[in-house]
Design brief:
Helices cover 73% and strands 0% of the residues. By secondary structure, it is an all-alpha fold.
Length: 183
């Protein structure tokens, strides 16, 4: 994404950490959690790759269509999985947002991102910002009861901790808002 280097690296770190935890969650005993964690790991690492500051590494022109293709395929998978789970609809919106950002980055030169000068937010970007801001707020509210419930005494593996999965999703939602704002 085109923007300052320091926030870009913080976003990369957040997304890599989230993607790494999602890989750990793929070891869960619950099949639905493993499937969701795989899609979330792809989103985390994909967001990290897209968020690398262009002041450090300018990606070749072929990377943006590649991102669009990868997340387009992930979107088709999320669409197929959405038949049985409402959570996969969120994955579908997330992959669509990643495809949208990749297309925008591929079609807009870097200088245009800095020189927009109050041109306003495009309609799609604004709609995605509203969605992900709402998602972040709702995820934050849902996280509070999961953390305050306390320990039940049962030994739970790292991949099966619902409060960590919610925090992971919250982190990715925050990252998506940051990337859309930087767009």
């Amino acid at each position: 994404m085109h923007g300052p280097a320091s926030p870009g690296w913080l976003l990369v770190a957040l997304c890599v950490a989230t993607g790494a935890y999602c890989l750990l969650r793929m070891r869960s005993r619950v099949e639905e959690q493993r499937r969701a964690a795989g899609g979330e790991a792809l989103m985390g690492f994909g967001m990290a790759a897209m968020a690398v500051p262009t002041a450090v590494i300018t990606p070749p022109s072929w990377t943006w269509p590649l991102y669009a293709a990868v997340f387009g395929a992930a979107g088709l998978r999320a669409l197929w999985a959405a038949r049985g789970s409402r959570h996969h609809l969120h994955h579908l919106v997330g992959t669509a947002a990643m495809v949208y950002m990749a297309v925008v980055m591929a079609t807009t030169p870097a200088a245009a991102h800095h020189a927009s000068g109050g041109a306003g937010i495009p309609l799609v970007t604004g709609a995605l910002l509203l969605y992900f801001t709402g998602y972040v707020l709702l995820s934050g509210v849902r996280l509070v009861p999961a953390v305050t419930k306390g320990v039940t005494g049962a030994v739970v593996g790292w991949g099966d901790r619902p409060e960590l999965a919610r925090a992971c999703r919250l982190s990715m939602g925050i990252g998506m808002v940051a990337m859309l704002l930087a767009l």
